[in-house]
Write a structure and sequence with these properties.
The chain is α/β, with parallel strands linked by helices. It contains 8 helices and 7 strands, in the order E-H-E-H-E-H-E-H-E-H-E-H-H-H-E. The chain has one domain: 3-Layer(aba) Sandwich (Rossmann fold). Helix content is about 40%, strand content about 15%. Strands 3-2-1-4-5-6-7 form a 7-stranded parallel β-sheet, sandwiched between helices. The protein is globular and about 55 Å long. Bound molecules: D-gluconic acid. The site of D-gluconic acid (GCO) has 14 residues, from loops. D-gluconic acid (GCO) binds next to loops.
């Protein structure tokens, strides 16, 4: 038996039209899963589905806003009825606003919390209802370095991602008895669209991250593949409420002076 085989499983991945969501969805598809891709931009969705299909992955798209509970509920009901049970949910959709707290408006702060923290609750709640009946399911919440660390300008994001870590533990606490494993992945610093503004050549943050990461580089989205498959598969059936940090070692160390190699 292959513990990591996902053949015949259906995986709903939010925000999977690009970035880390897309990389994790592709990994699950390579392990055999049928992808249910959520996004909110029709053009991005079209391009994403073309890319998934070109690679031979089985993927269907669902355009809905993860912060709209009615839309979430309806889309999940449609998927369950017309496509089959959702075996795996990855709560990946998220945004960041880099604004110092003193300058941040309350509506901006709330928007980040709504998308990065409230939406994973909303989507999980509606998917878990079906998983509870089946006594089987995998939920993965995409956390962050900012679930553990602070950084100038990302206060709202850090508050949401710190909250998501605790929401993960609480979901695990309430749902483990239904054979639903809820865990998190905490990506370190990855080369994606979201980090593009702080990765540009000559940006001090670029050197800072490379120096701060024991592995000495930014993560490639494909670095998440193994952990995403592990937490989606039978290999993790007694793993509950863990956040696995895939960070090249950042959280293991205090870092080192800029000129030390
Ligand atoms: C930043 C980054 C981070 C991340 C990431 C780290 O500005 O510090 O964008 O917040 O994107 O989640 O794990």
């Amino acid at each position: 038996m292959n513990l990591f085989d996902l053949s015949g499983k259906r995986a709903l991945v939010t925000g999977a039209t690009h970035g880390l969501g897309m990389a994790m969805a592709q990994a699950l598809a390579r392990a055999g899963a049928h992808l249910l891709i959520n996004g909110h931009n029709p053009d991005k969705m079209k391009r994403a589905l073309d890319a998934y299909n070109k690679n031979g992955y089985k993927a269907d798209g669902f355009l809905f806003d993860v912060t709209d509970e009615k839309a979430v509920e309806q889309n999940i009901a449609t998927i369950e009825k017309e496509f089959g049970p959702i075996d795996i949910l990855i709560n990946n959709a998220g945004i960041i606003k880099r604004v110092p707290l003193l300058d941040m408006s309350v509506p901006d702060f709330k928007e980040v919390i709504d998308i990065d923290l409230v939406a994973p609750f909303t989507v999980s709640k509606h998917v878990a209802r079906y998983m509870v009946q089946r006594k089987a399911g995998k939920i993965i919440n995409i956390c962050s370095m900012m679930s553990e660390l602070g950084r100038n300008t990302v206060g709202a994001y850090a508050a949401a991602k710190g909250g998501l870590k605790m929401l993960t533990r609480n979901m695990a606490t309430e749902w483990a008895k239904y054979n639903i494993q809820v865990n998190g992945i905490g990506p370190g610093y990855f080369a994606t669209e979201q980090t593009a503004p702080i990765r540009v050549d000559g940006h001090p943050f670029n050197d800072f991250i490379i120096n701060r990461t024991p592995a000495g580089r930014w993560g490639n989205p494909s670095d998440l593949a193994g952990t995403a498959i592990f937490l989606s598969s039978a290999a993790s059936d007694f793993v509950n409420g863990q956040i696995i940090f895939v960070d090249g070692g950042i959280l293991a160390t205090i870092g080192k002076p800029a000129n030390e190699h």
